[in-house]
Structure formats: structure tokens, C-alpha cells
């Protein structure tokens, strides 16, 4: 699997990056190797699969540099803060009103799966300024959490497992398992925190992950009074260490932070390979 860190700025877009937006891609060669090893079922289509993890402000622009928006297989949202879902409104307009392929022109529904928290469809209706749910239904097929049982999904060669996080609204960290790009035939793990403070859910999410993509929006000494909102670099490192994650990729750094401070904090608590995610970064996992 390939992780593209399209938007890595926290709490809103920055001058050099959209807000939280990630693209996970799995290609036909990885799928063939996994089928040969018996780690992916024979029934999975051998093609490129594209999963969007969160779609924050500006993220839809970045997606278009890499794939045709009609080739997105699903969008999975950690939570419904604007810096993680705002661009579902722009994507809706594109998929509905594209003059050749849009659902309005073809008369065929697109029904792109959108996995997310309980109120995902209401939130997107609100952002799109739509009160008629049928209109959104021509583009999106919502899979919300029901009775606090979160979505748990097989998308072709990709499995998505959500974990409850510790944030100000209902939030799920997403554990993504898919054929490895580095170890043909094997399954690799990407754990993405969404937004969270320290919690056992975050440790379970990141357990033994090849890459732990973890937010670190707060700074030690500055944000100490606020609990249940965000991690600091130090606390992100603590989660990575307790989970025995194999590497840590720090993200969701707001524009007012010094990323070097975040990186230094994480190195106090986690000794494995650690880096700051970069806009449009590519990570083979
Ligand atoms: Zn956020
Ligand atoms: Zn948030």
C-alpha cells in the first residue's frame, strides 16, 4: 500500500498544505502477490484501489493531482470537524455536475461509500446546503455508526477497522490493513489517529503498526490545561511506544506550532523511526 499525505495541517489548512487529507492506494501487482500468498481472496479485483482517509479543507484540490475523483473507491472519516470533512461538499458538486460523468448528466447514481460517525449524512447535508437527502444520495452512500457500533469494512484488498478515540466529538482512529508494498504477499498496517488525546483506544489502534500516522496538535507546557482534545508530540510518542508501533509519522500540526518542537518532544518518549509528515508525501508501507 502507498500512503499519500495530501493534507497534513491541523485545525485548518495552512499556506503550504490542505487540512487533514490522506490517500491510500493499493495496486494490481501488490494484490497479485497477496493472492499468490493467500493473504487476499481470489475474488478481489486486480486494479488500483483508492481510499480517502479524511477530506479536510483543500484536500479535494490535492486529490485531483493524483487521481480522477470518479476513481475514489470510498471515503472514511475519523470525525466531523471541518478540518477532516469540509471538502465532501466540493467533491459532491464535482461528482454530481461533471458535464459528462456527473450523476445529473448520466442519470445514474454515483453512490460513493462514505464511512463515518453517527451524524455523517446530516453534517454533509448541512455543508452542501441541501435539505433534500435524495439529492445527496445520488452521489454518496453513507455508512454511519449505528448504536455506537462503528463501521468495519472490507474494501477490495483493504480492511478498515475503527477504534474509539478521545476527542471532543465522536471520533474513530482508523486501522488500515492491506497488501504490503515492501513485503510482497504480506499484509501491512497503517494506523491513523484522527484527532485524539491519550487513550487505550489509541494504543490498541497503533498496536504493532508498520506506520502510525498520529496527530500532535498540542505542545507540552502550552496546552497542558486541556485534556480530551489533542496529543502533544510527547504523548504521541508515548502511544507509539506503548503500542510498539514500528514507525511514527507525526501530522495535524497547526500553523502556529514549530514542527521541530513536536519532533523533539516525540523523541523523548519513542525511540523508533520518527518523522514529520510532509504535504504530498509518499510512503510505501
Ligand atoms: Zn483536526
Ligand atoms: Zn477534531
Features:
alpha/beta, 27% helix, Metallo-beta-lactamase, Chain A, binds zinc ion, 25% strand, single chain, 285 residues
How would you explain this protein's 3D organization?
The protein has 285 residues and is an alpha/beta fold. It has a single domain, classed as 4-Layer Sandwich (Metallo-beta-lactamase, Chain A), CATH 3.60.15. It contains ten helices and 14 strands. It has a seven-stranded mixed sheet. It has a seven-stranded mixed sheet with strand order 7-8-9-10-11-12-13. Helix 2 (59-63) links the parallel strand 3 and strand 4. Helix 8 (200-206) crosses helix 9 (233-243) and helix 9 (233-243) runs parallel beside helix 10. The longest helix has 11 residues, at 233-243. The chain starts with a strand and ends with a strand. The structure holds zinc ion (ZN) (2 copies). One zinc ion binds next to helix 3.
Amino acid at each position: 500500500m502507498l500512503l499519500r499525505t495530501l493534507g497534513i495541517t491541523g485545525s485548518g489548512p495552512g499556506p503550504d498544505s490542505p487540512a487533514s487529507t490522506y490517500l491510500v492506494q493499493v495496486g494490481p501487482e501488490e494484490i497479485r502477490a497477496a493472492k499468490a500468498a493467500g493473504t487476499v481472496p481470489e475474488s478481489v479485483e486486480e486494479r488500483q484501489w483508492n481510499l480517502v482517509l479524511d477530506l479536510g479543507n483543500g484536500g479535494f484540490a490535492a486529490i485531483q493531482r493524483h487521481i480522477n475523483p470518479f476513481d475514489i473507491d470510498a471515503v472514511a472519516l475519523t470525525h466531523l470537524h471541518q478540518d477532516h470533512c469540509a471538502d465532501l461538499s466540493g467533491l459532491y458538486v464535482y461528482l454530481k455536475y461533471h458535464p459528462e460523468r456527473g450523476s445529473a448528466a448520466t442519470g445514474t447514481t454515483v453512490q460513493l461509500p462514505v464511512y463515518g460517525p453517527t451524524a455523517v449524512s446530516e453534517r454533509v447535508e448541512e455543508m452542501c446546503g441541501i435539505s433534500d437527502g435524495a439529492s445527496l444520495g445520488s452521489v454518496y452512500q453513507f455508512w454511519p455508526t449505528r448504536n455506537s457500533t462503528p463501521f468495519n469494512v472490507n474494501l477490495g484488498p483493504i480492511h478498515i477497522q475503527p477504534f474509539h478515540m478521545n476527542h471532543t466529538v465522536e471520533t474513530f482512529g482508523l486501522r488500515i490493513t492491506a497488501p504490503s508494498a515492501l513485503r510482497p504477499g504480506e499484509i501491512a498496517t497503517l494506523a491513523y489517529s484522527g484527532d485524539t488525546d491519550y487513550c487505550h483506544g489509541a494504543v490498541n489502534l497503533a498496536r504493532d503498526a508498520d506506520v502510525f500516522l498520529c496527530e500532535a496538535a498540542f505542545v507540552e507546557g502550552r496546552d497542558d490545561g486541556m485534556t480530551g482534545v489533542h496529543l502533544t508530540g510527547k504523548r504521541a510518542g508515548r502511544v507509539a511506544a506503548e503500542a510498539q508501533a514500528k514507525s511514527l509519522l507525526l501530522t495535524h500540526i497547526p500553523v502556529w506550532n514549530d514542527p521541530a518542537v513536536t519532533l523533539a518532544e516525540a523523541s523523548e518518549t519513542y525511540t523508533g523511526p520518527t518523522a514529520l509528515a510532509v504535504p504530498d508525501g509518499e510512503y510505501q508501507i
